[in-house]
Amino acid sequence: MKLSFAAKALLAVLVLAATIIVARPNASYAYQDRESPLAAASRLHPAGTDALGRDRLVRVSAALLLCLAGAVAASVLTTAAAAGVGALAAFGPASIGWVSMLICDAFLALPWMFLLMIVRSALPLSVSPASSAAVTFLVLAALGWPACARAVYKGALNLKRSDWMLHAHAAGLRATQIIRTAVPNLFPLLLPQFLISIPAFVIAEANLGAIGLGVGEPLPSWGGMLLELDNSATLFETRWVYFPIALLIVVLLLLEAVAVEA
Amino acid sequence: MRLFTAIVAAAGMLFSLCGAIPCAAQAAARLPEELAWTIGYDPKTFDPAKVDDQESELVRYLTAGVLLRFNRFTQKVEPELAQSWKLSPDGKTLTFKMRQEEKFSDGSNLSAQDAAWSIRRVLLLGEAAPAAEEFVLPGSVTVDAPDASTVVVHLPRRIVGIGKVFDEIAIEPMNRPSQGHVSSGPFVVADYRRSQYVSLRRNPYYRGVATGAPAYASGIRLDILENSEQEIRLFERGEYDVIDELQPDYFEMLRHRDPTAARDLGPSLNTEQMWFNQSPAAPLPAWEKDWFASRAFRVAVSQAIHRADLVRIAYLGHATPAYSFISPANTGWYNRSLSAPHTDVAAAKAALARAGFRLNGSRLVDSSGHPVKFSILTNAGNAARQKMATLIQQDLGALGMQVTVVALDFPALIERLMHTQDYEACLLGLENVDPDPNAMMNLWLSSSPNHQWNPSEKTPATAWEAEIDRQMHIQAVSAQDSVRKQAVDRMQQIVADQQPFIYLVYPNILVAVSPHLEGIRPAVLAPNLVWNADSLKLAEAR
């Protein structure tokens, strides 16, 4: 419990700090200080600059906010979709349950990375960076729900077969009343699914960005910034290139700690 | 457990980003006094007549004896296996006199019959032999060997720069093509292990034109290695003697560690450029086609780009701002009196205003009120191009243009450029291996499918494109160098005025040379460092 609290507090501090950094006057994640490419830390650029002279601290902060917001939104969508499909499959007629789970299995069997690449490549070329970010997380959400739905289905099925549910049936409760009673009992199952999905989406976006399929320039993304590590010559220039991945590991650990406690 | 998973996932990503773990060191047996460097991939063929890729071409260059050699340093055609050569006044008959007592690497005699057979073999292979295409009508070319030391080639018509074509035709033993194992050049193919190495051995019967003796080096080991970091590490350990194509960031890293080894040879013949899609068949809105067809729009874009920043940031200073399709390194053809639009943002804004564009807040709109926004395509995986595109994105933002940068993998990019025409602007480079502008015929003729801004025009779409066609034709048929130069100068000026290609930079040639290697005379043309491989030797044993 203490670990979860500390993790939540640290996450909150990070988000607050990132918000302050991004909201500062003159802070721009896109501005290219062309006189200072790949600069070391200084008063003007506390975490140095990237190869185009953009402030690394502002970009990492903006990436943190963007990635967390996107991952939380995608996780909400995934969990909601999974809750709907799982509950429908469990409480609906057996045929619907069978078809729903078949669809889930089919989704799980898809080569999702390949699909993501196709979807990203199929986007119009002039799609704005913000739209590319939205699409990236939407696609992740669209592909992330089946595993979650399977877990919800199992939980809902156990609920359906529980003694109190049998008693409710025997007592003559209508289907809508039963669902209304059952849904709150699914929350303990949905919350961990929601929390587990967040770090999964964060790392998925970072992976996509690292192969050039994530958020469009100049919007910062973790994956895009990790691309800097793909070049030992850059590593030799400044150690600050490790900053994005260091923060990513910290954020992932904190998100996992929160999820574990749930 | 999940915490552990997160750490493993993140660490795994770090390692994957840091590049593949280097494969085991190459395992070719090494000879004393052997030279060594790397090639990026397996040569596709060792048959010198069928060479169609860079690495096969290098092996051919090192092993093939040729009648005429195009000297990469002086950029002049010189006799090699031929003692002399003559072109008839009508440009249709070439007569070669062979050197006496030449031998192949197996000790057999080399005669005019071998040379004639080798040339005929290339001509008969047709499309399978890229050199045959340079004869334009290879089926109509005849080759005779009237005596043991004379070869006569009859062409159906004059071909500009015909001498250079013979640099690509290896003379092999008649009826015994050997995939480079028997050659008349300085080296022969001794061993090849797929994905590991190509080993070349000195041809003891070779007599270099300059030295009159076999090559100094006992052999050459070409390790097949894609990983730049490993290549640099092995170079620093003394395993390799040269690196011929360094990326600017690796060049800087090496220069920092060993200033004497890293050398910037100045601008290459290659260009990096962007262009707008002017094809009428492109699935673009009519107003966008109007922008891209507008000279004022293209010139304004060119004027807004800070090429000095592209050089300094994307190439770390190892490039030269470009304004023409001919590099200043191409001394014979570069137009020194070229007048091209240089960086001038105020002039760009004024030109756009005159053309009916106006600012709506901070955003540029055309005369119909359409916001000026478009995407620039480039290929994923090329860091310098992606940096240039992002810098240009900000430069054009100063004019109020909204630019999106899109990096696509190469097949997807080519599909859009060559087939669907579904793109707005593109940023790519062009590799020029031949300094003669005639080699660019397929790029400049309006009817060509490689006429990128508007491919395969049935008739020239504009008067200036018709004029380029005309000048290209003049330089292709004229026998006088001064007339050809005048035509090419005129073309350079038209391109600078119209900006169908907005030239950005000429990347510099960045190389590394071991201090133990003697005889190096770097050239602008490939193979830049090893064009005189027979004169190279190690000062001390590896």
Supply the helix-strand structural class of chain A. Answer: mainly alpha
Mean pLDDT of chain B: 90
| Biggest chain-to-chain interface with counts | A-B, 43 and 47 residues
What would you report as the Rg of chain B, rounded to the nearest angstrom?
26 Å
Q: Kindly state the number of beta strands of chain A.
A: 0
**Proportion in helices of chain A:** over 70%
Please give the radius of gyration of chain A in angstroms: 22 Å
Keywords, separated by commas or semicolons:
heterodimer; A: 262 residues; mainly alpha; 10 helices; elongated; B: 542 residues; alpha+beta; 8-stranded mixed β-sheet; 4-stranded mixed β-sheet; 22 strands
Description:
The complex is a heterodimer of chains A (262) and B (542). Chain A starts with a helix and ends with a helix. Chain A has ten helices and no strands. Helices cover 73% and strands 0% of the residues of chain A. With 262 residues, chain A is an all-alpha fold. Chain B has helices spanning 2-17, 54-63, 112-125, 130-133, 162-165, 228-236, 248-257, 286-293, 295-304, 307-314, 345-354, 383-397, 410-420, 441-444, 463-477, 481-498; strands at residues 34-39, 68-71, 76-79, 82-87, 93-98, 142-147, 150-154, 187-193, 197-202, 219-224, 242-243, 262-267, 271-276, 319-321, 358-360, 363-365, 373-379, 402-408, 425-430, 501-513, 517-518, 537-538. Chain B is globular and about 80 Å long. The two termini of chain B are 51 Å apart. Chain A binds chain B through residues 30, 32, 34, 37, 51-53, 121, 125-129, 196, 199, 203, 206-207, 210, 212, 216-218, 226-227, 229-234, 236-237, 245, 248-249, 252-253, 255-257, 259-260, and chain B through 2-3, 5-7, 9-11, 13-14, 16-19, 229, 247, 249-250, 252-253, 256, 306, 309, 312-313, 373-375, 377, 380-381, 383, 386-387, 390-391, 393-394, 404-408, 412, 422-424.
Characterize this entry briefly.
The complex is a heterodimer of chains A (about 260) and B (about 550). Chain A has helices at about 1-25, 55-90, 95-110, 110-120, 130-160, 165-170, 175-210, 220-225, 230-235, 245-260.
